[in-house]
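Researcher: Good morning. I'm working through a list of sequences from a screen, and I'd like to move beyond sequence-only analysis. For each chain I'm collecting a predicted structure so we can compare shapes side by side. This is the next one on the list. No need for commentary yet; just the structure.
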Amino acid sequence: MKCLIVEDDFISRRILKELLSKHFDCDIAINGEEAVTSFQLAHEGKHPYDLICMDIMMPGVNGQEALRRIREVERSLRVPAHLEAKVIMTTALDDPKTVVQAFYQGGATAYLVKPIGKQKLMNELRTLGLL
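Model: Good morning. Structure tokens for this chain:
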């Protein structure tokens, strides 16, 4: 399975890659613009991502906007709902407004508050049927 880690913080990227690389072939994007480009290229290459772990707060194109664009790409390609990428939004912010934006407006599959530990992440991956 393939995973795209979208995170502007080096340490957070490294932790996520270490946790996920045992189960996924991981690619890295350091901002939302790279995430959308990587997502499009993966579909063009017929190897789409099964999972995207994306930080909400990033400079330039933030995670919410990148997710909106990714979901637009899926709609334009007529990707069936059950084959859409599972998207776990990550953030240091634990407030209801951010949760509402991530799920109801952005189309996120899940939401995790940092720091992200191994157990918390693995539990979420099991819930999403990825482990």
